[in-house]
Amino acid sequence: MTGQSGNRSVPTDTERGPPQPTQLFALLADSRRRYLLYRLREEGPCRLAQVARDIANHEVATLGTVPPDSVRDVYLDLYYTHVPKLDAAGIIDYSESLGEVLLVQTDEAFTRCLDAAAGLEEA
């Protein structure tokens, strides 16, 4: 569906097509967004609260209990910054009522960029 903005038509997210390389690289530039995408690719739909706990644990790099403030900070960062960016780009779908995130972008360009990022992190 195309929306109207002044005298010109503005494509909706579904009409824009897959993200372009520059947009993909910008989206993959943040480690929290990459972790979320790796997780979604490996495990399928995930609850945002659980991903926030896992990211906080990874960032704190402890085997013990992660401070609740760290988990809250990661959750808020994901909820207000990273999830909306990925959702607007058409890469994920976030169900606020379920608190779940689902990977929806699986085209070849996206997969290759995500694989490259994962490979660099493993090196």
Structure description:
With 123 residues, the protein is of the alpha+beta class. It contains five helices and five strands. The radius of gyration is 16 Å and the shape is globular. Helix content is 57%, strand content 15%. The protein has helices at 21-28, 31-43, 48-60, 68-88, 108-122, and strands at residues 2-5, 8-11, 46-47, 92-95, 100-103. The strands form two sheets. Strands 3-5-4 form a three-stranded antiparallel sheet.
User: Low-confidence spans: pLDDT under 50, at least 5 residues?
Assistant: 1-14
Number of helices: 5
Please give the share of residues in helix.
Answer: 55-70%
Whole-number mean pLDDT: 85
Number of domains: 1
Lateral arrangement of strands in the main beta sheet? 3-5-4
Gap between N and C termini? 43 Å
Most strands sheet: 3 strands, antiparallel
- The radius of gyration computed from the alpha-carbon positions, rounded to a whole number of angstroms, is 16 Å
- Looking at CATH, which topology would you report? Arc Repressor Mutant, subunit A
- Let me know the number of strands: 5
Annotated CATH architecture: Orthogonal Bundle
The CATH class: Mainly Alpha
What is the helix/strand order? EEHHEHHEEH
Q: What is the fold's blueprint, element by element?
A:
Layout: E1 2-5, E2 8-11, H1 21-28, H2 31-43, E3 46-47, H3 48-60, H4 68-88, E4 92-95, E5 100-103, H5 108-122
Antiparallel strand pairs: 1-2, 3-5, 4-5
Helix pairs in contact: 1-5, 3-4
Please describe the structure with a list of short key phrases separated by commas or semicolons.
123 residues; alpha+beta; Arc Repressor Mutant, subunit A; three-stranded antiparallel β-sheet; globular
